[in-house]
## 1
Amino acid sequence: MDLPPKASPRMIGHNSSDKNLARMIRVDHAGEHGAVQIYRGQLAVLGHTASARTIRHMEEQEQAHLKTFDALMVEQGVRPTVFSPVWHVAGFALGAVTALMGEKAAMACTAAVEEVIDQHYASQVAALEEDGAPAAALKETIEAFRADEIEHRDTAIAHGAEQTPGYGLLSGAIKAGCRLAIRLSERF
Ligand SMILES: [Fe+2]
Ligand SMILES: [Fe+2]
């Protein structure tokens, strides 16, 4: 991952498109926080298996993403979502429970989550394109992270995610949960 450009100076003021930027930073921070927790939950169960190295690498990338959004929130004066403590626990639980179902189920979880994040980041990039210069740095950051998320999804599929028994059902449920979490984190 290339280091994204620094998004300062302050880009958020008080108009409605600024409110959208604040929402974007809030929800992305929540998502990266959740992602770190999911991979930590997986590692708590699968830390000594063949998948551990792969999962640890993804977790490290999520930590770098989270750190960037941590800094952006401070710089831009954006508060975290009120659901932050919920995502902390739910993310870890999702990672651990799917890992308990097996390495392939853990990968199915990763593929589902990363697919939703990929789509989410793609729609943010499209929205930021219309915002022009003030949003350019944030757009570049999100594009760089999106490339990592796509890589995570592809890695999970390469590790047999789709061979999980009940893959369609499991994947559908996780994606629905992620989309709900995104909507809640944007607004609250
Ligand atoms: Fe990420
Ligand atoms: Fe990811």
## 2
Amino acid sequence: MSDLAVLGGKPVRERAFTAWPVFGAREEELALEVLRSGHWWRYTHGEALDAGAAESAAPSKVAEFQGRFAAAHGSKYGIACVNGTAALEVALRALGVGNGDEVIVPPYTFIATATAPMLIGATPVFCDIDISTFNLDPARLEAAITPRTKAILPVHFAGLAADMGAIGAIAARHGIPVLEDAAHGHGGSWCGRPLGSIGVAATFSFQASKNMTAGEGGLITTGNAELAEICESLVWVGRKVGRPWYEHHRLGWNYRMTEFQAALLIAQLERLGEQTARRQKNGSYLSACLRDIPGILPLDVPDYATGHAWHIYVLRFDAAEFGVSREVFLKALTAEGIPASSGYAHPLYRNPVFEGTEWAECPASEQACREAVWMEHRLLLGDEHDMDDIAQAVQKVWAHRRELA
Ligand SMILES: Cc1ncc(COP(=O)(O)O)c(C=O)c1O
């Protein structure tokens, strides 16, 4: 019998990895506080964004969370909302993106990065990624800019900072704002600056898989007071601070975060620093352990990516070099007790929603979809022994690859 678990052998690992979400007494305390207060939505406490007096009389968890999250991410303003998809839509609308405009996006990301512009009448223009980082490739950016380009929307994919220096320089030359999709970026940094504080605005997600979560949730960060006010109005059905309750100034929507979500997120934010440090230590250690295995290519972490948020541990799998297909490898690895997946099956433009639209194939994104292996960030929340188990399992599958052919 083979040693490989997939062929009946004993798995490298039989213990579960850290479960996600991580939560405890603090989440319970804050959620119960909201429950017992009866203040379940923010505006119970006052009608205005700047209604400091009303909110300090009956503090709002949403107001507290917005402030604390923005400060922790180097931004003056935070506008909480229902999810990261809505955050993208609101931020784009606040930037004035609308009918007939173009927004440059990478095709290797979650669908919302491209469909948020579509929802407001704009067209996503796909700009390929750099295969060594899976982030938008600045070398291809200029060619994607047209007179209709209204925003550039790079993603800090998997928590690795996009090349914001190069992207920012091109954007500045053309006078186009950069909106960061920081859905994976909590606690990460670029050149020492927090992700979410580099572009004119940024959007975050607190959906269940993210590095901080309330099941669902989103937030926009910005240092621009005017943008902040527009965003707040848009998530508040077009209301305006200081104006009557039933007076609506913009075509806004009800995208408000609840006090329950904010309660959980305050507790999650308090865990973020320690968890990010742990993910960083384990992520770097794991890459060092895997680097010499043929066909296993951990992604580059450029010098400008000073703080990787490690939302996903991503590597490239070279099937020819390793000796089996990615699908066979993933099956064997998972059988060894290491959960891993192949991520996006195809670049965004191949989704049926883009049928009938014009797009050019992006070769690096196609390659990323063929080669990627993803592991969830929770695997990085354990200790070095957990990383040793992952490395040992990959090594074991490689050593026995011929039995899988
Ligand atoms: C890169 C990226 N952008 C945006 C989103 C949208 O966030 P949400 O799921 O909170 O709507 C996600 C979520 O998966 C994402 O991965």
